[in-house]
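INFO  loader      accepted 1 record
INFO  loader      residues=330
INFO  predictor   begin
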Amino acid sequence: MPKRRLPNLSTLPGFEAAARHLSFTLAAAELNLTQGAISRQVRELELFLGRQLFRRFTRRIELTEDGVAYARVTRDILSELERATARFAARAPSSRKVVVSILPTLASLWLMPRLHLFTQSHREIEVRVVTSIEPVDLMSGAVDVAIRVGSLPGQNSSPLQPRIDLKMVNDWTDVQAFELFPDILCPVCSPNLLAGESIDDVRSLLRLPLIHTSTRRFAWPDWLTANGVPNVDTVLGPDAIEFGHFFMSLEAARKGQGVAIVPDIMLAHYEGRRDLVSVAPASIASAGTYCLLVRKSRSEDPEIKAFRSWVISQSVDARSPLMLDRSPHP
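INFO  predictor   done
INFO  writer      dumping tokens
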């Protein structure tokens, strides 16, 4: 057989990472190499091909037309090689694991209390849970599956839907999203805060302390605007009550510190929900959706497929609207 004319295969991961990030620095960080090493690998590949793959500027790089085409082929080849390696690598059943990255409050209130149901039926799979609100990088290999909230590519939303500035991923290449449940915002508080009064007019909410969650800074202003109370961008003033996570906001609301606006999926699984009442006639869906994210090229890996199917089945019950008592407790 004639000798195959192939480039140095060790240069391909560096080129693929640099093409994906459009940065030698970020590619080097992902592969635990130096920026110079990535640059040399790319240069070696360009010399072998006789084509320029990147245009180099002072503070940035961009792919040439040849670079775009070769990056697409390289990504497909490496993904297929990764899948084949996963299929044929001899692994003991006890070494099979799924690393799940999930939003902190959703992990505490929804995933962790029911995760034993998965492990009982899949004892051969170890599940490791890490929490984060940052965009997940499924290409790094550090995470297998993620659950995030945000807008999907091409998703249309109404101007009246509360904005959501959380990003699920920075790059949707090779990422598959499975919708779990909508992000429906509900204002709730302790009945003691109302002192026996009912909230019939949304505008009267402004007389009460509003509890904000820093990761969802548009929740209150946009929810109030959608309910006919405009020009409320200043509700987060210097004396505002603010917490870093929804669990903290729920706890503060339960203790009577103010009115919290939280997703109904969090509220439905919060142990103290019976100490809270809804203070508005209607809940509003934000422009975001809770999604399970996996790499397309790995979605059929046995352990990932098993976890994906289980999470989707568990999300079905959470899609039903949450009904709360809308009047103060006696």
